[in-house]
Structures are given as C-alpha cells and as structure tokens.
Write the structure tokens for this entry.
Amino acid sequence: MEKREKNKLRRVDQSQSHMPDDSLFYQKFVPALLAGLAIFALVIILVAAGIAVGVIPY
C-alpha cells in the first residue's frame, strides 16, 4: 500500500499548470480567437436559420 500512496502523492505534485504566468499568447490571443470563433459560429447559425425559414433566398 505504501507504493500506491507514493504514486498518489506523485500525481498530485505533477498536476501543475503548464501555462506560463506572463504568456501573451494565452492571455490575449487564445481568448480573442475563442471569441472570434464564437461570433463566426453564431453568424453561420443565423445564416442557416435564415435560409431554413426563407428570409435569405437560396
């Protein structure tokens, strides 16, 4: 049982974030990319709904 406890403690120690604290990429670029993708998905959904309802002729 001691071996299992050591492995458990080792896993807890290894569960740290790999993201740097001062990373411009993760603080600015990734959120902006996610927001842009969300807006793009919303536009695609609205266009598809408009076509389905008949507001946008296809």
About this structure: The mean pLDDT is 84. The helical segments are 2-14, 24-53. The radius of gyration is 23 Å.
